[in-house]
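Researcher: Good morning. I'm working through a list of sequences from a screen, and I'd like to move beyond sequence-only analysis. For each chain I'm collecting a predicted structure so we can compare shapes side by side. This is the next one on the list. No need for commentary yet; just the structure.
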Amino acid sequence: MTSTEQQPLGSPFSAASTAQDVTAGLDLSGRTAVVTGGYSGLGLETTRALAAAGARVVVPARRPDVARAALAGVPGETEVVAMDLCDLGTVRAAAAHLRETLTAIDLLFATAGVMATPERRVGPGWESQFAANHLGHFALACELYPLLAAAGDGARVVVYSSGAHGITDIRWHDPHFRTGYDKWHAYGQAKTANALFAVHLDALGRGDGVRAFALHPGSIMTGLQREMTFQEQIDNGWVDEQGTVIGPGFKTPSQGAATGLWAATSPLLAGRGGLFLEDCEVAGLYDPESPEGEGVRAYAVDPGGAARLWELSVAATGAAPIGG
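Model: Good morning. Structure tokens for this chain:
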């Protein structure tokens, strides 16, 4: 993939499209999807839409009891597997269980995430946003790769990034913020990592028919904001004093899930991968002269940076080589 491929394809959907719009008429019977965080926010909307279309949906969850309760009313076939993205032991255990019980995975959604958290250290001292948003998903995808490669007509991996990737490239000199922590820069770095992860996973996996995409779902009020105070949300112009969403361009959760579902199912993306998407379309490159401020930063789709991050992530997690 090169940045010149970041060109719109003429999608019939838009920022206003919902999960139901994108999946209308789809028959996903016989398909298996894994959706991290698939029991709340955009993940829950994704699970609902996939299950309604006939897919079997597996939801790895840090709080399995909460996840089962949230999914109890979802029509269709769902399963919860215990997993904490910040604990690689649980990631490997969940992946081992899936390798024992499944023959293939058609769709993997890296949807779960945290945002703007206070400084926390997990595992061997990793910065927690980088660990939860990137390293945990990286390890999971590597562990599940044999099942993705086994998908008969090709698998797709959908990685939730954010417009916040525009805050910063990877801090190569200090990715774990050992020399000073900023919660928004840590979030921005993790979201850039999500985008770069999709670029290199696609490069390694395309020979096996495994394609990967990253995306910005839009601005949506979900549980992702749980680490922020109500006053911060007001000060950012997201909600008013009564808690009503007033942020310009904010989407509903169903609209927020639409781009991920489009990434997973659109025939327009057949034979493509390593692309950054937004509003159910391939995003253009960011133009600093554009008043809208939309698009993907070149550093977030740079193959060299993606390969460098992959090496860093393999060294950190001990993940096995993949690709064919």
